[in-house]
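Teaching assistant here, posting this on the class forum so everyone can see the example we discussed in section. The complex has three components, and the goal was to see what a joint structure prediction looks like when all of them are supplied at once.
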Amino acid sequence: MTALLEVKDLRVSFFIPAGEVQAVRGISFTLEKGESLAIVGESGCGKSVTAQSIMRLLQSPPAKIVGGSILFQGKDLLKLSEREMEKVRGNEIGMIFQDPMTSLNPTMKIGKQIAEGVRLHLKVSSEDAKKRVLEMENLVGLPHPERRYNQYPHEFSGGMRQRTMIAMSLACEPKLVIADEPTTALDVTIQAQILELMKDIQKRLDTAIILITHDLGIVADLCHRVLVMYAGKIIESGSIDDIFYNPQHPYTWGLLKSVPSIHSQEKQRLVPIPGQPPDLIKPPVGCAFMPRCKYAMKVCVEHDPADFQINDGHKAACWLLHPAAAAIKEAAELEARA
Amino acid sequence: MDPISNLLFQPFSHKIGEDEAIVRPNTTYWQDVWYRLKQNKGAIAGLVIVIIMIVMAIIGPYLTPYSYDTQNLAAEFTNQPPSSEHWFGTDDLGRDLFTRVWHGARVSLLIGFLSALVQFVIGVTYGGISGYIGGWVDEVMMRIVEILSGIPFLLYVILLMVILEPGLNTILIALGVVYWLSMARLVRGQVLALKEQEYVLAARALGASQWRIIFRHLIPNCMGPILVYSTLAIPEAIFAEAWLSFLGLGVSAPQASLGMLVSDGIGAIRLYPYQLFFPAFFISLTILAFNILGDGLRDALDPRLRK
Amino acid sequence: MNNNEIILEVKNLVKYFPVAGDNFGKSSLLKAVDDVSFTIKRGETLGLVGESGCGKTTVGRTIIRLYEPTSGKVIFKGKDIVTANPKEMKSIRRQMQMIFQDPYASLNPRMTVSDIIGEPLDIHKLAKGDARKNRIHELLQMVGLNAEHATRYPHEFSGGQRQRIGIARALAVEPEFIICDEPISALDVSIQAQVINLLEELQENLGLTYLFIAHDLAMVKHISTRVAVMYLGKIVEIAESQELFANPQHPYTQALLSAIPTPDPKTAKAHKRIILEGDVPSPIDPPAGCRFHTRCRFAKEICSEQEPEFKGDSRHQVACHLV
């Protein structure tokens, strides 16, 4: 059975006055039907660029997909014409953006905006479209759907707008929804509402979700699998149990340690990862994380780490996992995960 | 892939996270703008033409042995078509048109730049103060602007002509007095938008005086739109002076601006079309070049195009 | 240095903003801060948390008089600064400074780092020439940057570095009290930890007192001695840090803590979240009585009629009828 989405060695660069910024430097992953995958990482790691590449929403210039393939249900999306791609967007792949304030058209009524995708892709009558919209409004928990149909975005709160975005993304029952930091701009209590909603919808509609976020808390709650990205590459991938309870990459260790938990009893020590990510205009030759890594070895300086399989579905790109590094790794892991 | 030697799997001692160095070369805002401008072929063409016009305006009149007001009323010298002695021909008073056109260009460009300068100085200061201080000061200052903008331009000019003598200075005053109004509005709008920015709040929290905030923080950050506006003000002034000339309110003879020359040339259009062609061509070219350059600048300054 | 000295006392602070009228031209008031009182002791960190519209940023900016208070007192080192004249205010600005949220907007894009950090030195005439240059380098090093960064422009730095420049700028005048207005919200997680650690280090080395405004409860818990929770312009609960998180009494605080996603899958699955219904009401027309009653699952009749008073001791106070 082919996977729903298969990304193979994707490479994306931005060509700016100062040179070529290699934002995504060869990533590969698969997504099964109904699965929810988180892509985590910090700013500049390439996660948003990856999401936008799948939808081919990058502005070109200055961005350019310089290599790789994105197979959606067997079709390579990178080889489709713009017109063919338009049939995919909204219809087979939906997208939820970060900022609900600016992702909605302020001059169009809500009902019309949700209906837009339906009418475009499903070719139904305007009556049927309206019925569908009301169904969607109910699904996402917008109170008084009839009334909301005729309102404008500025009359909605942030939470309601995000629900509208979710309704829009699901209106045509896509197989895959890409959510790019969907709750970052929302208050914590509203975020909780939206997360519950997304969990509920996922159970009901069995849509595959790619969730782009930097918040590990959301990932733990919502997703099955995680990809950790750093400097344009996937440095670790696995199930959420793998990543949270058995992380293998020093960056993942660092991430988990630099996030304070409200449940801790005594004063924790926050251990930040020193330094900052490399500027991808001059990507390093060896491991991109090496300058910030306490456990770096000589091999890390010149050789980009290969992927090492830890167990079924869990792999990491780190030289510590090479058999020759076993002793060092044991000491490192003991210290880092203490 | 060659096998990697086991010897490399030894700890590598280095200063962790020392890499606060900046990799990219130092680029300022204006370097960015210049880079984007360079990519706009039209804008560069406009810039080149403007530079050529300025150079010719300076040296043009010296390229011929004639001066712009040397008359020669003998019949064989008046109304001559272009020839090797008079590259653009002569007018009805036997004056060399090549010299007159470049002299006219000088006058027109001078008018353009000077009125843009007056507009800049008065408009920026007025708009900056009004926008930053706000409250009733802003209300009063803007009401004044609105009242002044309601008065027709021509009325001003005629009034000024009555009070002062017609001539280059009067025109400059007239244009300066009117055009600063829109610049003031522009700057005020920019300042209103910027004054709630966090760096302005930070400056206030540090104890900065109002003047420091307006002139060190706000105005420099408005420079983009101000520059575009000024660049577009130049052709506007040249054009305004041109039609003032048409109405007989331009510079006085024997001084001439390009507009004046066009006005003179129209009278002779049937018999001596070259007298109209040259000044009309160059004034149109100048105005077009400034406009394209101004538009190009506006695009190059658009913050959304920045990474 | 007296360890129990109260450096800041805020008394019944009120800040209303006039809002443009609705369709019928009636203008109304946005009650951003509506009778807020608290004290901060020298050397401690008071955390101020709440969601958007609760007024916490307005509290910070009103204390430093970036906004003029509608009423109330702000007593800093024994003097009410609300009534201070411009000359006195300038001297107060040397003792009280602020760090801002947005690393991309809090630095003037047209000024070099040296200009930015040097500006307070110029305004208060603290150093000239070489002394000024040295002081700027000293400040850069204090925040973990180096001298060669002084000639660069803000856009060449990352968010975390810009935030550090903002901190250096605030430190230039050698303040005693710093209001941190969401200083880490716009930063990546691992960079947040760097900045927090820097702030803690500086507090220890320079004897600073902080008012730490944020919405990230976990970070607030980590850095604060005491924490105040705000909702719609009022403080609903204020307690020592550990105490508040171990024993939240106000229903809003409970919901807030419950809503935070934990980076731990097992806990996440077991956790039954308290989901608040509806959206945060607008501060233009806050509900009568207890402002939280419209979303409170325990609300009784009294809650919609009367505003609750603060109950409790110096360790923990709550404004709720049901406690």
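For the discussion questions: The interface with chain C takes residues 20-22, 24, 26-29, 197-199, 201-209, 212, 216-217, 220-221 of chain B (CB under 8 Å). Chain B has a mean pLDDT of 84. Think about how each of these relates to the inputs above.
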